[in-house]
Every structure is written in structure tokens, then in C-alpha cells.
Amino acid sequence: MRLAKRGMALLFVLLLAIGTAVPALAAGQTTLTLQVRIGSTSALINGEKQNIEKPYMQNGMTMVPLGVFQRAFGTSSRLEGDDTVRLSQGSHTVTFKIGSKTAWVNGKKIALAAAPVMKNGTLMVPMRPVTDMLEAKVKFSSGTIVVTLMSDTGVPGQPSDNEAEAPATARVGSSHANWSIDYPADTVAQPGDDEFSAMIGDLDGSYMLQIHVWEEDRNVSVTDMLEQLEQESLSAGETLVDRQTFPNAAIPYAQIIARDVDGIYWESRRYYDEGHVYSLYMGDSLIEDYREFDQWTDLLDSFRPSFNTQGVQTEDLSNVKDGYISAASPDYGVTLKVPATWTPTGSGQLEYSSKDGSFLSLHAVSVDGSGAAGLATWHDFLQAKTDEVFLPQTAKPVTSESVQASGQDAIIESLVYDLGGGSFYWNWLVLENEGYFYVLRYSAPEGAYNKQTFLKIVDSVEIDFEAVPSRFGKLGQISYLKDLKLDVTQSTPDFLFAAPAYWTTQASDGTGLDMRYFIPGGSFRVSNVDTGLEASAAQAVRRYAELKLDDPTLTYETPKRTTIAGVPAIAISYAGTGTNGNLYQAEDIYFRHQDKTYWIHHQLDRGTATPEQLNGIERALQSFRFLPAK
Amino acid sequence: MRKTGTKAACLLLSGAIGIGGFGFLPQAEVSAASAKSSGTTSSKTVPQIIAQVSPSVVGIIGEVPSEYAEEWSDYESSEDEYELAHGSGVIIRSNGWIVTNAHVVDEMENIQVVTSEGKSYKVREVYSDPVSDIALIRINVTGFKPVTFVSSGEKTLVGEQVIAIGTPVSLSLRNSATLGIISGLNRAAGAEYRLIQTDATINPGNSGGPLVNMRGEIIGINSMKFAAVDIDNTGFTIPAGTVQYIVNQLFEQGEVIRAGLGLGLEESFSATVGLPSDDPLTVSEVLSDEAAAAGIKEGDVLYSVAGHRITALVDLNELMKTYSPGQTVRVLMQSGGDIVERKVVLTSE
Fold first, then answer.
1. Predicted ipTM?
2. Fewer CB within a 10 Å sphere, N or C end of chain B?
């Protein structure tokens, strides 16, 4: 429950890497926006209405007056020679030549459909090379163009909010996690891994305060919390120096002071308020006597389990807006908003999951070789895949609807199936641009699934379509959508077999042989067991008996003697109902080769045991081969 | 005010064969001589050139307030309120018009011109332009031999041999000649216009005298005003083009009417220090209503005027020589990030 305190050094390094570590989540970042309209002299620059020379379209390129970039984003531009214009931000530059259709973006020559030109005495330049160079997001919406850019240095012409010497606000906190504390000068506050943790540290790295919030259903007393803190401290190998409770404080709290394994002193306080536990960990590398923590009393006493303090400005570390937070895949050039309760899984380009079973993932796929010729063929493509994976009656026909996403025509394909455990919903948002499909998948079981949630996510999707083509070559289809008949050889030093390409490889535990694959509706696993052939089979039978205690529907067949990879094997088929309520069928196969017992386990939800899927498993089993010993 | 006829120029060139003073040559020889002088390098010796040009170089003497004299000469200062000061000049019209430096004749009273032969003449008229340091004075004579300025089409080269003629130190050293080379061209040496740099020795008193090339043409008027104290062999000369621009204005108007953008402009650091760069000028002040009407604001940046890139104030001054107040020029500027083209009506500076 309590997140482990990492070593001071590491955390301070992370803290000092503001702006480079987790840009989208760092405190003090400003979104700069430029909003222009074709044919209009009115522009909205960082919220301020300004007059500009009218933008217009020429040969498909949006032409804007050069000055908008400086005023919105603080880029610098100058004339070089007689007719060369250089626009730069940091080390990135765009070079134009007035009247020429050739330009250079970061040293790379590009061709322009329209050349920069003087119009009514003002130099107009094509917008896209500049927004590319800035890596800004561009959104077109019926004649209005909105360009946004994240900046660490605040609005051009205005003092930055990131003045490290004196924080702009007196207090800092999170409106989502509902807490706030005084914001000391010479410190920077940063959100932690999620919306429920944060850290405030000084720039020298000599002290740091960590704040963690979690839910607690039952009412926790200060003595309970004191015991918790003690136990956690001891199990972390710390030396306790002081323990107290403050039951009469404005918000009662428990407090301990301990010295950690690195010799650094920490004061920990724990508060309980309205269903939440708030833990504060104050570490100070300069303290050598626990009494010196007196210097931090005022700061720690200023903590409140609420965000708003009457009449005082509080900086908000939370990124949640209307219950949604920003998510991004910088590689794919995609930003979108997801519900604040979802957490990133940490894998893939953009993947989120939730305790209720909701799942979101983003993929970019080359049109070539994807199996779908274009956006319009995705419906039939997904329907064909559904037919291959789901038995009739388990899945409803895939439905299609047209939507707008990131200013483009897109489609949402929807699938509902029931494998016995209740309805499960899948939605795919598909866009097509410059030879790539952008596929956003949302899946959730009945009760967690909410179409409106997905539509809100779709509405927030913004894609910079130049990003993928500029960074990637050919990208293959999402694994579970790959051709069912394609196999990929899996090899180890001892054996090999051919697994269907549409099986998704999963991470293994690491020790010894453990190859795992996710099959739509099931799984396939190859590993070793310690027991011999007969003993393993006997153990399996005992296992089924145990499982039957919790699952009365479980049945198993008599173990069969068979061969696999040319060696004797024992195979036992069984079926039951999974914890998710889905009916499944499975098989355990044991076989021995050169003093090792191998165990193959495969399983499929009954509803997904289509001939195609079963054939895939069969192919994998038939292809098993031992390699000659070296 | 009559302008010099081309015939006189031919006469001067043709009369260069070792004869001091003026003379007339038969037609055939005139054309032969002029044919020889155009295009091909006529290899005259240094004595020949000096003999040809020197008669047109004069000394200028007068009284100046004591404080003024100390600046320009190393005279032993007297207790008198006024002191004698002198400089040099060049005869540019046969009817007595002489070019010299403005700083020579400014503040000067009872100005006298002394020729190479030692004859004195009282100066009747003075027209001075301190900005360029060129002045025009007139004495009552006829038939004087004027000099020829180098034509604008001809290229002066760095390294070319040049001769400075003038009256250094004292009037007794009238029409002294020193020999050197062109050390540099188009120098921005803190003057309004670009200057020629030479190592031909130029001492106080040489001011207003000519710098002559090996064809006997005047490439400029020497000026001590721009020389740095205690620096050897670095003298500056006002180029012939600038001299003629000023002289023409003085002839036509009695003063120089300069066209300007009506802006206070600041050079970039590189330009001030003298480093090559194409950093533009910045508007520090909008001085004229016309400039304000063109939409120019303080802080705007000036890239080019009439299509010419301007990186130093001298560039702008040189360009403005071809314009008069009231004319309109195109300027390319940067304002609020936008690169804009504006039209400015020039005003007199």
C-alpha cells in the first residue's frame, strides 16, 4: 500500500530532470496556442486577440504571416542575405527563401507546394514546415487552424511560471487527490507516477517531501496509523528514532522519525480524512539529529487534505480535467484524453487499463500488408476476423459507424460477444492517413463498458499525421489481427515449434523455460516441470480435483497416451468454467526428452474454439521438434 | 557656377608630359593622349605624377581660435587668442574653386590660399559640410589648372601605389609629396561615409590635400580628422565619389541636403565592433512623421533599403547619397516577428 521510498539520490536526479523526464506531466508547463482562420485578420495568440495579415491557402498549403510563430511560440526569425528567412527555436530551424519552393527543416531539404511571398507588404510563409520543426500539434476544424505547443518557458513576452527562485503561488497541491501544502521558495513540485503521489524538492537536492494518497474504506485511528508507519519502517530496514501521535491536531496524525539504510533521516506523517489516507515523507540529507526536524514543522503543519485554501492561490499538480487526463504517444504523434481512473500499463506506445477491466491501446499499422485495403474495408476485415475467432452465436455481427476524429473521417467498429461470463465489448477507432492506419482499441466487460467514454476519448484524439511517416517505415498488423494461417518459428536451444503469428507473445517469469502466448479467448504455454512423466500426469489429475472444488462444472477425460515431437506423451483434456464466467476447454500435455519433462498447456474459451483457432493450436503441436544435441 | 567641361579634362591629361602649368596641344596629340589614357595603364613615374598634379595643390592658411588649432595641428601654442593654422586644398575649377576639408576652414578667419609657386590669394567664399568634412572655397582667379578625379567606373585596388600631396607641419613645406599604397577600401572608420585607408604619410596640414593614383587621378581628399593619434601609417582619405557628391550639392544648393529615413538607428554589436555579419539595424527612435506614417515603430529592425541590405550606418548613408528628401523608398523591415515591406517618404536629415 505504501509506496516505497527510493534512495534520495535517484529521486533527486529525477526531480532535477524537470522538463526532460516526463514532459507532459511536469509542473509549470504552459500550453501555447495559436489560432488563425483562413481569410481572417483576427488571430487568437495565447488567449489574446491580435490582428494579423490574412492567412490563405495556396496549392494546399496554409500560408500565414511569419510573425505569428514568434508571438505565439517565441521562435526567432531573421532575414539572412537578401531573401533567406531563418526561423528557429533552440537548435531547430526552418530556412525559407522568398519566392522559392525549396525549404530546409532541421537541415533536411523539403519541397513546398507554395513559395513564401510578400502579400500586402507582409511576408507569408507555409505553416507546415514550421509546425513540423516545432513538433507542434495542428488541428484543422472548418477553416480554423489551432496550433498548440507545450513550453517550459511560459508565454512569450510574459514572465515564466517556472521561476525557480520564488514559486508563483503560495501553496501547491492536487485538486484530484485533494490535498495542498505550502510551496517553499527554492523548491519545485512535481507530480509522481500517478495522480495520487507527488514530490517537492529543493534544487540542490538536499531535501525532499513525498506525498502519497490512497483510499481507505474503514476509519483509521492515529494509533493504527502509527503502527502502520512503524511496521513499514522496520520492514524497510530503517532505524526508528521517534514515534508520536497527535490526536488533538486540526487533522489528527501519527508521526515517526527514522533513519534509512543510507543514513538519511525521514520524518513520516500519516493523516486520515474522509476515506483517504495521506502520507507525508520528509527526507533531509543534512539532518543528523532527529530534533532538527523542528525546522520542518511549519511546512508539514501547513498540509491540508483539501485543495482549496480560502483566498490563497494554489498551484495544481493534477492533470485531471473533468475527470480526464492527457495521454500521449509522442512517437505516433497522438494525444488524447483518458478517464483519470485508468492507469498506464507501461507497455506499448499508448496502453491504459483499469481495475474494472477496461482496456485501451493504440497502434499504427501500415496499410500495405495489413489485410485491409483501406478504411472502408476495415468492417469486412474485422468481421472476417471475428468469424475466425468466435463460434456463431457467441458474437454479434460487427457494427460500423462513421465519425470524425482528429479532423478526419474515421470509423468505429463495434463487437459484442459473450463466452458465458457475460457480454464483452470491443470498439476500434480506425483512421487512415498517408499509408498508415491508426487503430485505437477500447474493450471492457459489461458494467465497465461505456460507449460515451469511448466517444469522449475519440473526440479528444489529435494526431499529427506527419509524425508516423517521418519516423517509421513499414509497420505490421496488430498481432491478434494477423493472418490466422501465418506461423512464426519459436526456437530454443533444445527445440522449436511454429506458433501462429496472431498469437501474442507474453512476458515470462524469467527463470527457466516458460513460453507464453495469448490466443484470442485463450492461451498456450510451454514450460518445464520437475517431476517425471507419470508423476506429472498424476499431479495434473489431483489438480483438476482441487479445481473442481471451486468449479463444479469442471470435467476431465482419462489421460491419453500419445506422441509429440516423436517422443511418448500423456495428454489430458479438461473443461470447466473460468473465474470470468466463460466456459473453457483445455489440455495439458506432458512429455519427456533428455531428462527433462516438458509441459504444454493450451486453453480456449469454448465460444472461441473455432476450427481456425483449433487448427492453429494443432499446427503448433504438430510442429514441435527437438533439436539434435550439440 | 560653371561646371568643368570635358575639354579641360583632356587638356590636363594631354599636358602631363613633364610640363608644369598649362598648355595647349595640337588636336592630333590631344586625341592620341586621351586615347592612351583611357583603359590601358599609363606608366607614369612618381616624379611625373607629382609634377602633373602638384600645381593644382594649394596651401590654405588662416587664423583660428587657439583651442581649435590645437586639435588639428601640433603648433606651439601662442598666448594669442588666435593662431595661424593651415591645411591643403585642391583646385577643381579653373575659375578658382578649391576643395578642402571642412575642419580646415571651419572657424578660420582671413583665409588665404597659397599656390605651389608661392602666390597668395584671398578666399572669397566658403561652403562647408562638416558631416562629410568636405568644404568648397573660392578665390578670384581664372585659368587655374584643375585636377581630374578618378571616374566612378574605375576600380581602385588595394595595394595600388598612391601619392599624397599637401602642406604638412608648416607652410614652408608646401606641396610635399609622400608615397604609399592603398591599405584598404570602404573602411567604416567612424565617419559618415566610407573611407580609403592609406599608409602614405599624412601629417597635420595634409588635410584637404589629394591622394593621387598612378594615372594622376585624384582618388580622394586626405583628412586628418579620421586618423587615430599615435598610430603610424594609417591615414584616411575621403573617396572621390563622396567628394563629388558633396561638391555637386554645394554648387547647386550651397549646402548639402541629405535625405534620410527619419529614424534613429542603432547598429548591431558586430557592426559596431567591425565584425562581418549581416545583422540588421534596429530602430531606436521614430523621428519623422513620414516614418511614423509608414507604420515604423521603435524596436523594428531594418534589413534593406531599396533592395540593398544594410548592416552598418555608413551603408545607409552611402545609399542615401542618391536620394533627395521627398522621394519614397521601399524598406524591408521586421516588426513583431513579421517581415514587412514598407514605403517611407524620405525627409531631410
1. 0.70
2. N
